[in-house]
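How a chain folds remains the central question behind the approach discussed here. The record that follows shows the chain in one-letter code together with its fold in token form:
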Amino acid sequence: MHNYHAATIASTEGVSICTSASPKTQTRYTAENSLILTIALCCIVACTHYDIATEERMDVRKLMKDKDTPEGVSLLYNMVSRAQKDLSIVPVLPALILSIDDIVNYIFEGGVKKQSQFLLITSKALLNAGTRSKYHTKENNILCGLRVKLTYTFLSACTIALILISVLVGLKEYEIPQDTMIVLKIEGLSVGGGGVTIGKVGYLMAMRGQKAMDKKRYQYYRDNVPSPFISTSRTEFCGWASSSPTPGNLKAVS
């Protein structure tokens, strides 16, 4: 009976049917497809990924006028240059552009109801299936499990920093009385990670259930993983000596 109803609804304009899709809340979908968020991201990139050059860089200006340069790249460059009163600007070195992201896994033990063979999704989601995963909305979780957050740092030079696995269990004070979190360094946890020379030791973290928990988790990660990773990347890809001050043209952005 469910399949019959699904087929009937799928005949409605804007609705399609498929056999697999990822669950996603309506709030998450709205955030990922927000026009305001896209504009904000463009503004952040414009403000952080360009620096004012110490001298006129005609090579960069010439490159922006090249027919092979994507139109969006030239447009953003010209907008930033105009905002800086037409001063010569240079982009941050590609080898020093990072992406830090969290992937949350929901882990549980037990059984779930068998999912229907056919799922309803928007026709737009089906058309974009080649570049984005299909999804269906799901607003509630009936399972009682643990949220495990995996934090990654990627570099544009195709390297990856060490991984941090955070078990968000909300431990009580009597369970870890000495501190608000416990961090274990596990050798071999980041197989293939570590970037250039940073090593092969991953991190496993368990924390108390406090309001500022996530902020403290990220502060620990920032100081112990991305910071040394950026330093070794400057040395490996830019020839920077760690004993010398960091010049402005070796700024890293995320």
Q: What stands out?
A: Confidence is low (pLDDT under 50) at residues 193-198. Residues 60 and 93 are 13 Å apart (CA to CA). Residues 98-113+141-250 form one domain.
